[in-house]
Amino acid sequence: MAEIELEKLTKVYPDGTQAVSALDLEIGDGEFVVFVGPSGCGKTTALRMIAGLEQITDGTVRIGEEVVNRLPPKDRDVAMVFQNYALYPHMNAYDNMGFALKMRGVPKSEIDTRVRNAARVLGLTEVLKKKPRTLSGGQRQRVAMGRAIVRQPQAFLMDEPLSNLDAKLRVEMRAEISRIQRDLRVTTIYVTHDQVEAMTMGDRVAVMRGGHLQQVASPQELYDRPANLFVAEFIGSPAMNLIRARLVHEDGKLQARFADGVLTVPETVAAARPSLAAYAGREIVLGIRPEDLEDQAFARNGGDVLSVEVDIREDMGAEVFVHFSVDAESVATAEVLEAMEEEDVAGAVHERMRRGVPFIARLERATRAREGERIDLVVDTRRLHFFDPETGAGVY
């Protein structure tokens, strides 16, 4: 096992495309770090540079305090687990798991011990004699992991290993990978575009966008204290609701005002965000997570009330998503602006903005919210989020 350190890691392709820009990150010995972000953000390119599969334009990769920039992949002592499993179809599971050891000249007795130990950990003992085509997707993925485990590398590098599995199996394999990594304590970098995977698996999560690292923190810190608007929208499902509001002092209290309502900022929130005081009398971006809105009839927490008309009700079984619009100025985030550049959706985006800012509330299944009817929603003002309207940076 070993620490991995990335220092100003950069990748620029011959056509000038900058896939990764000056990435700085230290990953501790035995730590599980997840790279997450939308397609094209540079997460897989960064992983491939660490593995030696992609040439580094600039910067340094250290594994166990050794600079490995010029080392070929086989000499970096890392094991890759890919999206497509990359199993040899003519070999059974046992031979697939032990093949790399055989090529290294490891004695047969040691190969047998390592393969059978890994199979026991992964629940593969009964399928070792089977060929990949006879295995389920989950079993093939575990064989691919077993091939990495038997090598006893300094680090695991995993590139979207669960994306080919169905939803139920992905949940099961998330827990399985987390358990195995916790038991083995091997330094692991895991790449995914799925923020649920990132939040449930990583000790820390590195959020990337456009080749730049936006924030790296524990899952809870990303959720509670997003560094900027991009992280705020990307982390959390459904995404955070965002509007422009004006902060004012009224009767000794700080209030966020917009056309549809007034939300009083609790003193505890203002104290925890000392920079917020400087925005009094100014515009600010206000964020409210869908789960911080409650049907007043069932509200467990106090807070200010928004009276809204339900546009769409989505019954999810254990919960209900309620869509409505708030009369306020919208926040033109990068995602909205990119959407508006696409001709086929520009009209729809403009129409939604004209009707008001779309909001989602995540309510308990007992709610009596009905489409076309009004409902009073309690806002948990203890969990309000604030961002600078010019830079998008979180205000703390």
Short account of what is shown:
By secondary structure, this protein is α+β, with helices and mostly antiparallel strands.
Describe the structure.
This protein has 396 residues and is an alpha+beta fold. The chain has 2 domains: 4-231, P-loop containing nucleotide triphosphate hydrolases (Rossmann fold), CATH 3.40.50; 241-387, no CATH class. It contains 11 helices and 20 strands. The protein has helices at residues 43-51, 93-103, 108-122, 137-150, 167-184, 195-201, 219-224, 229-234, 267-272, 334-341, 343-355, and strands at residues 4-12, 18-27, 32-36, 58-63, 66-67, 78-81, 155-159, 187-192, 204-209, 212-217, 241-250, 253-258, 261-265, 283-288, 293-295, 304-315, 319-326, 357-364, 374-379, 385-387. The strands form 4 sheets. It has a 6-stranded mixed β-sheet with strand order 6-7-8-3-9-10, sandwiched between helices. Strand 7 (155-159), helix 5 and strand 8 form a beta-alpha-beta unit. Helix 2 packs across helix 3 and helix 3 (108-122) crosses helix 4 (137-150). The longest helix has 18 residues, at 167-184. It starts with a strand and ends in a 9-residue tail after the last strand.
